[in-house]
Write a structure and sequence with these properties.
This protein is of the alpha+beta class. It is built from 16 helices and 17 strands. A five-stranded antiparallel beta sheet has the order 2-1-5-4-3, sandwiched between helices. The chain has a five-stranded antiparallel beta sheet with strand order 7-6-10-9-8, with helices on both faces. A five-stranded mixed beta sheet has the order 12-14-15-17-16. Strand 6 and strand 7 (191-194) form a beta hairpin. The longest helix is centred in the N-terminal third of the chain and has 41 residues, at 137-177. The radius of gyration is 50 Å and the shape is rod-shaped. Bound molecules: adenosine-5'-diphosphate. Residues 417-418, 421, 445, 447-448, 450, 458, 463-465, 468, 474-480, 503 line the site of adenosine-5'-diphosphate. The site of adenosine-5'-diphosphate has 20 residues, from helix 13 and helix 15.
């Protein structure tokens, strides 16, 4: 409601209810709004008229209302901003619309939406105020509930935003901590995040990386066919890409060998289908490995030549020994010979490793008697060991096609290990059997066993289980060579083991003649 100055300027008679015609009284009483009139010319602006609705809303009857200033409706609840506004409006003779907390006669709070409007005489002096009021408690309650809900909502949004910020920071700190270059890509292979290591390795800046498509980065230097295959063909099959080597000549940084690992995030939600691509620059590491392999090849070759010569001299000296030489001298020469053979075997193993590394390891296949080869190897080992009894069971009915010497080396190695790594036991079980069209060979010991973690690594070259290194001699290459030999025979070598119970090393080889194996 807006104040209309002109209509308020009326020739107002001294007002009492008798001045209001019955028709107007009836009209005022019919209003659902409470209506009061106060007389501003009297001290403390008392109420001189109220309609029926005002009595209903306030709970007071007319006699209890007339003559009072409106403030009785607020009781002790005086410090309301709305009251201040009302006082100002009355003082200035203006109209105002406020929402004020009032109390019924019973003391129940109700929100009163109050509009007061001054009535002025011809001189512009405010003689009366008319107040129109409505109980808006229900609306107020809904408003309050809404406000409460909104505040709760806002709190939740703040909390959620904070937790998102924290998880974002958490993820970013993980990404930055990773030692490899790491890219987070969206499903269209656009870079969403790149860590510092990526920028450092590939000499690019953040601004030229983020938001770019992977293949378009740095003059399309990442447009590598192998990488395309990986991301477009392999990843969509939901298989992670693990340790995939890619060699590429980058314009700024030259030839690089990279190890790629890629995962697609399959979780439902906002990270779905993002791709994590970890890129490790292994150029230097590989160069060092190559140097080590080269050194190994040269060293074992250089050691072999003088060893052969010494061995020749020792054998020559043995032959020169007079028949009646002292036993001690003969014994010393025999022992020197045995140690030279041992050294020869170690050097031969090192040479084998470097041949395997350089792809020059060759097999000389022929038909041979597998049973006989195993029994011979066992006999030799029986002579060399007093601590263990070696039991052999089973045999195969046919001959085998393969490199007898190399397979004998495998059998020897596995049985020698079984003896070496079961110092507290006294039995080794060897078994030969036919399984489908394979020969299966197993060596079972009752020794220290191998942890699950180590079982995965013992076939790697130079790997030795940590806690046995001091106690047992060895170079950690025996099983590596064995596995390569078996692989080259199209067979498999594996271990079943339990710590402190024992290990069983087994291999299978396809049965069959040269003709069947090679279709010659
Ligand atoms: P080496 O015996 O010279 O160390 P190998 O390659 O033959 O090298 O074996 C690698 C490692 O595997 C050994 O160092 C040892 O820790 C473990 N290993 C091999 N055979 C056995 C076995 N029968 N029982 C327990 N551990 C074994």
């Amino acid at each position: 409601m807006k104040e209309d100055k002109d209509t308020t300027k009326q020739d107002v008679p001294a007002m009492n209810t008798e001045n209001i015609s019955p028709l107007f009284q009836a009209a005022l009483n019919a209003s659902v709004s409470g209506i009061i009139i106060t007389d501003n010319s009297l001290p403390d602006n008392p109420i001189i008229y109220c309609n029926k609705s005002f009595e209903r809303i306030s709970g007071y009857n007319r006699e209890q209302i007339i003559g009072h200033n409106c403030r009785f409706l607020q009781r002790e609840d005086r410090s309301q901003e709305a009251r201040e506004q009302l006082r100002e409006a009355v003082k200035n003779g203006e109209s105002v619309n406020v929402e004020v907390r009032n109390y019924t006669k019973e003391g129940t709070l109700f929100w009163n939406e109050l509009f007061i409007s001054p009535i002025k005489d011809n001189d512009g002096k405010v003689t009366h105020f008319i107040g129109v009021q409505n109980d808006v408690s229900d609306r107020k309650k809904i408003e309050q509930e809404l406000r409460f809900e909104r505040e709760k909502m806002e709190e939740k949004v703040v909390e959620r935003t904070e937790s998102l910020r924290l998880s974002q920071e958490y993820l970013e700190s993980i990404i930055e901590t990773v030692r490899e270059g790491l890219l987070v890509l969206d499903p269209d292979l656009k870079v969403l995040t790149a860590n510092e290591e990526f920028m450092r390795t590939f000499k690019v800046s953040r601004s030229e990386t983020i938001g770019q498509k992977l293949y378009e980065l740095g003059n399309r230097q990442w447009d590598i066919p192998q990488l395309r295959d990986l991301l477009e063909k392999i990843l969509p099959t939901n298989n992670p890409v693990l340790d995939f080597e890619v060699e590429h000549n980058f314009p700024h940084i030259g030839q690089k060998l990279m190890l790629l690992n890629a995962h697609r995030i399959e979780l439902e939600g906002s990270y779905k289908d993002r791709i994590l691509l970890a890129i490790e620059d292994i150029t230097d590491r590989r160069a060092i490995e190559v140097r080590k392999d080269d050194f190994l090849a040269v060293a074992s070759h250089e050691l072999k030549t003088p060893l052969t010569t010494i061995k020749g001299y020792v054998q020559f000296a043995q032959r020169l020994l007079p028949k009646d030489s002292e036993d001690k001298l003969i014994d010393i020469m025999d022992k020197a010979n045995i140690q030279l053979d041992r050294l020869g075997r170690l050097i031969a193993e090192l040479l084998d490793v470097s041949k395997i590394q350089s792809g020059k390891f060759e097999l000389h296949r022929d038909e041979f008697d597998f049973n006989k080869m195993v029994y011979q190897a066992v006999d030799e080992l029986r002579q060399a060991t007093e601590s263990h009894e070696i039991e052999v069971s089973g045999k195969i009915e046919t001959k085998l096609f393969g490199d007898e010497a190399q397979l004998a080396q495998v059998v020897n190695n596995l049985i020698a290990n079984a003896i070496k790594y079961s110092p507290k036991a006294n039995k080794i079980k060897v078994d030969i059997s036919t399984v489908s069209n394979y020969v299966k060979f197993s060596v079972k010991d009752f020794g220290m066993g191998i942890s699950i973690n180590d079982q995965k690594k013992i076939f790697e070259r130079f790997y030795r289980v940590r806690n046995i290194q001091q106690q047992f001699p060895g170079m950690g290459i025996g099983l590596f060579i064995c596995e390569q030999i078996i692989k080259q025979h199209e067979g498999t070598l594996w271990v079943d083991s339990e710590e402190d119970v024992g290990s069983t090393f087994s291999f299978t080889l396809p049965l069959g003649t040269e003709h069947e194996n090679h279709g010659i």
